[in-house]
Amino acid sequence: MRRIGFALVAITILPVVALAHAADTSYHLRKEIAVGGDGGWDYLTVDPDAHRLYVAHATKVVVIDTESESVVGEILDVPGTHGFAIASDLGRGFATAGRSGKVVVVDLNTLHTISSVTAGENPDAILYEPVHQEVYAFNHSGKSVTVFDAKTGEVRATIALGGTAEFAVLDRDAGRIYNNLEDTSQLAVIDTGTHKVAATWPIAPGEEATGLALDVEHHRLFLGCGNKVMEMLDSATGRVLGSVPIGAGVDATAFDPGTRLAFASSSDGTLTAARVDDAGTLRVVQTISTPPRSRTMTLDPKTHRLYVASASFAAPPAGSPPGRPPIVPGSFKVLVYELAQ
Predict the structure, then answer these.
(1) Which 8-state DSSP code applies to residue 2?
(2) What's the pTM?
């Protein structure tokens, strides 16, 4: 995932259908959680059972309590932080440190570093595969995956991808991991039993996908593509099933199994919500307004809340080359969007 600034039950039990209809046009801003500090940011990762949100920010991972909606801790010394993976069964977390080429292993209770594992060039996305208790670190620049034992840190495989690794999702039942190859506009399918690429699917007409989400029940993948579409693929065959228009500069994609909404957040200040109708067609149901450059997002599947990273930007100095404007120091925050009751 591209770094910003520096270069994933209601209280009362409601039918799924009722939640789905309520979600059509009713997402709104609930709260702004002040984080502060300087520097850019990347992935946001929710632990819905522990009520925590992990936010990659500059050289650390900020930990937010999603019940009190406040910062409760930090994981320090993660240079070039990108992604965070959670192994609840082991009480461990894993943070990619892109600048050092390592994965930092963390005790989830104390937030202290236990050890580190050497990955490839610029580890970015990361996930935990619980069946084999393995961690997959996706080396963005290295175009590979480092697979290691979550308990011992022993590297078990290095998988060549043939493309720039972006976001990845796990289908535990199928024994597959799907990973966007941004520069080749393809999707890699990794067999978790053999540590091999089982297939590489073209995503045309989609291009340069970054965000990726999975609907396990209906075997659908949702890809946030750089040519301003969210594309839907069959996760068994790779067949393109449809697409909807989204904003420019997409980064993150999410899927909520409770509302059956798929989301794509873009830097042009839009967060698109779409759903597959009864005829199997993906349709936009809401375009949520967000601050410009707020393109990194995740979803809590228990509360259905969306968490969006944001900051204020200053005017670039006179005569400076085109590019991202500087971030206003101390302005970093997380925006919380929720469904109207």
Answers:
(1) P
(2) 0.92
